[in-house]
Structure formats: C-alpha cells, structure tokens
Amino acid sequence: MSLIPESHKDLLEDKSKALGFIATTMADGSPQVSPVWFNWDGEFVYINSTQGRVKEKNMRARPQVAMTIMKLDSPYRYLLLRGKIIDVSTEDAEAHIHALSQKHTGTDWNIPEGQVRMKFKFKVEKVFKSG
Questions:
Q1: For the chain: N or C, fewer Cβ within 10 A?
Q2: Which is it for the CA torsion 112, 19, 91, 88, positive or negative?
Q3: Cα–Cα distance measured from residue 42 to residue 64, given in angstroms and rounded to the nearest whole number
Q4: Which contiguous run of DSSP H or E holds residue 39?
Q5: CATH class belonging to 6-130
Q6: Beta bridge partner(s), residue 124
Q7: Chain segment 102-123, per-residue pLDDT in tens
Q8: DSSP state string for 120-131
C-alpha cells in the first residue's frame, strides 16, 4: 500500500516531469541537498547518481534521506518524503539515467567514458504534502 496521498500522486508520475531535491547527511552531521531526477514504481522512488559523488557517499554511509518533490511552475504544491535508501546497484543504472534524461530533456544522458552510474532505491516511510 502506498503512503502517497491520491491528491499528490501526479507529482510522481513520469508525465509531470517534477524535480526532486534529496537531502542527505554529511559525515559531520550537516545536511547536503541535491536536485535529482527520479521515477516511482508505485511503491519505491528511484534516483540515479555517479559513483563517487557526495550524495552517493552519503546515502551509502547514512541511508536516511528526505526528498522534496515539486513542479517548478507550482513550487507551493509539493510532497516531502522521508525514509531510507534500501538498495544501491549498478545494474540497469545506465538504462535508468537514459530513461530519466529522456523524460526531462528528450535525449539520452551523455555518460563519459569510465563513469559508473548508481541506481538508488528509496523506501518511503513518512509523507507530508502541501498545496
């Protein structure tokens, strides 16, 4: 059963092209926020990052995260999701970033040679809504 309220599920659908802002925790306890593309399968939220990035390191070391999701043309209608990263994988990560890029830009993502993409599975445990 999804925790996402019916009134705001549209923000998670691919056609919305909403943007996410994921908050992770640095080793010193300070917050770090990054804009991210995402997709939702009706239960889990998936995001993508490059191996070695700050958010990737933070999510591996401290999997508790929060994420705000909104459309830029309607910033006061949003979802705030809290939960944890329950899986990290390179499997299908390149296909995932291409799909996210197609959704937002209409083109595949340019993956530099040698870059390793990571796909993160976010289990939502608490949801707040606005608007």
A1: N
A2: positive
A3: 20
A4: strand 38-40
A5: mainly beta
A6: 83
A7: 999 999 999 999 999 999 999 9
A8: EEEEEEEEEEE-
